[in-house]
Amino acid sequence: VEEVVWQGRWLEMVRKDQWEFVRRRKATGVVAVMAATPAGELLLVRQFRVPMGADAIELPAGLVGDNGEEDPLVAANRELEEETGWRAGKLSFVCTTPSSAGLTCETVQLVLATELVHVGAGGGIAGEESIKVETIPLGEVHGWLLRQQAEGTLVDAKIWAALWLLENFEKAT
Amino acid sequence: VEEVVWQGRWLEMVRKDQWEFVRRRKATGVVAVMAATPAGELLLVRQFRVPMGADAIELPAGLVGDNGEEDPLVAANRELEEETGWRAGKLSFVCTTPSSAGLTCETVQLVLATELVHVGAGGGIAGEESIKVETIPLGEVHGWLLRQQAEGTLVDAKIWAALWLLENFEKAT
After folding, report:
1. Cβ separation of A146 and B173 shorter than 8 Å?
2. Contact status of A156 with chain B (Cβ, < 8 Å)
């Protein structure tokens, strides 16, 4: 039996058997986008994350369905454009990952975006988000991330996963 | 200003500015272990995850400091042995990742374990955990994960990250 033991504006806390876990109230999922520009640069975003109290470098990402029912690939392209200023001609699912399988039921769908065109400045929704776009040549991402980390910026491991998947996913499928 | 708005046995909910996020009460962190056997097989674990309502394939992992102050590398080796039956002669930090930077302050430290020796059966703490060890040759992990995913088993993206880091981390440092 599952019981909602606390409910906030965005999140709710669920108790089931001996477990406590958190659930998003206003989203059906999260998408994160693996996108390289025609020049071979990976698109990453840097923003201050209140729960972490620090800057984090992440894949462009966002909630699905927080304003009503929505196709995750449509959400992926919207977030990519809002955050980075690039729009994809083609999007496809690669994999889905639990965020923290013992703590939350949240999953993130990793989406591969290709055929990119530059349509704006990015940076997130004006007045709501403050996002810096980082455009890093694919061959330099690994070393760049290690330097970011050494300087105290948090690096989301989904970026390391993306580096692997960008090299290996198409081959294997 | 930060306010604890709900407190459970394991988790608590925090409100700060417009944000809600979840925090672990009884742990200082989480470690996940990248470990390959002398025969070149990656050690993975499969277990049912209550928040997901499904099986997940993950790196061997566990909480740090849930029974008092603890060195994360000591915790990493304890979890590796409990879950897989292998113990490492050498452990080192590779990187730290937020689990979901907008939802929780939880971070996971990725630890590289080498010089492995087989000391037991693994499977987790008897009576508390039910963990199946998966021992997959490194060159076959990618295809194996895609098949697991196609069959409906959740795959934690930190495994894809580990495949990248196992190939690239030592080289770059």
Report:
1. yes
2. yes
